[in-house]
Amino acid sequence: MYLAISFFIGVCHHIDHVLRYDHSGWPFRPEVTPFTYSFLVYPLFLVAALSRRYPLFRITATALVFGFTTFSHIYFETPFDQYRTWAEGSPVPSHGIQHTLLNTESQTAGIMAATITVLLSLFLGLALWQFILEWRRGEAVQVTA
């Protein structure tokens, strides 16, 4: 359940990145940026969702998504940075493009963007914890020959 919620929140977070054009990248801008590589989380989500019989794959995939997501939003683009882009405009030069594709400054949108980021890490952490507990209790589906 937590993984499915995390997936939905992650899609919302990527939409936010696209809307904050300065914080996007290929395929929505010509430049390849860290945003471009962030799409690698979706195959990891797939591994986590489909690896019920292999709990360590599930745990590893979820831990990677949780780790990369949380690390990126602590050290590279904090929820405060996301808020500020929406509320005040981006400090990054936008090459003639508006700071957001919606061409607006909105504290509400900033609060929503920051909240989505925090919820993403929270639910990924809960999914990871759930998978670890299932593995420790032996609740993973057993492969029978």
Q: If you had to describe this structure to a student in words, what would you say it looks like?
A:
The chain has helices spanning 2-19, 34-37, 41-50, 55-75, 79-88, 107-137. The protein is mainly α and 145 residues long. It has one domain.
Order of helices and strands: HHHHHH
Share of β-strand residues: under 5%
Distance between the termini: 28 Å
Main sheet properties: none
Coarse morphology:
elongated
How many strand elements? Answer: 0
Provide the gyration radius in Å: 17 Å
Unreliable residue stretches? none
How much helicity do the residues have?
A: 55-70%
Task: Present the secondary structure layout.
Elements: H1 2-19, H2 34-37, H3 41-50, H4 55-75, H5 79-88, H6 107-137
Using brief descriptors, characterize the structure shown:
single chain, 145 residues, mainly alpha, elongated
Brief digest:
This protein is an all-alpha fold. It has helices spanning 2-19, 34-37, 41-50, 55-75, 79-88, 107-137.
